Fold this protein.
Amino acid sequence: MRLLINGEEKKFSDGINIARLLKTEDVESPDMVSVQFNGDFLKKDEYESVYPKDEDVVNFLYFMGGGE
Amino acid sequence: MRELEADEIERYSRHILLQDIGVEGQQRICASKVFVIGAGGLGSPALYYLAAAGVGEIGVADGDSVDLSNLQRQILHSEDDLGRAKVLSAKAKINAINSKVKVNPYHGVLDASNILSVIKDYDFIVDGTDSFAAKFLINDACILAKKPFSHAGILRFTGQTITVDPFRSACYACIFNAPPPAGAVPNCSEAGILGSVAGILGAIQATEALKVITGAGSPLYNTLFGFDALAMTFRKVAVKRNPNCRTCGANGIRELADYEQPACELKNA
């Protein structure tokens, strides 16, 4: 299946959940990102149960705390 | 709104020429009040442009004094200001550019007990702080006070920003819910920041303030704008209000509370 991850189209085998996707995409720690799935924000306890389908859109949004 | 004086028509002529601003837009800018929290990497360029644009009243809050390691990016301050309170340095620079701007310095840290009273008379708030505790507090305060504001965060060669229209567009907590665990995400003093990246993001924040004040264009509502200086790319991610948002959702907050500040951030804030 093809997923749009942070604006880039990538190919994945079927049957991969968000938790696994976070690992595959080298996201250092799920605590550091907010996961947006087809426009909606997922709760952390949904990472195991959500299985993206072909052409789904996933965004990993990162915390940025700097400013001074 | 008052009429522009002759010298103001000359001074702001490049704004007045813009169809989306014109005389009326400039009058709005001159009548507006903007509060900038943090006179550092983001606040410096934001304050310079807001002052130059003729914003009538500018509030600026910061509890710090100018330190040598600030000068690499905090362009409001110079070597002569080392040791001086940042808000006083900021006031001097703002009035050197534009003596008509009324500057209200607030030398101290904003927290749940004082932020609402400090921002209440302003039209737009700019978040130029450097800790998650402060960023979430500012978000919550602006939502409760129904003040539009610009959030921004910077790290290494990257930055991101969003503009929030309370209860009408997604807020910071709609996206990120709550601060990350202490130490999970580095800040600038731990990870570094290219000074000019702070400048770009701060200039965007000033631009957003001026757009909201004049009604020109489309502010970054429901849009998280991300910038990467190394690749020199930017990306807009469409976001929407979270109905379960802890801050602005149906069961959102009714009053303010402080967020815990991780110990490692306290000394660097």
Summary: Residues 35 and 60 of chain A are 5 Å apart (CA to CA). Residues 18-24 of chain A form the longest helix (7 residues).
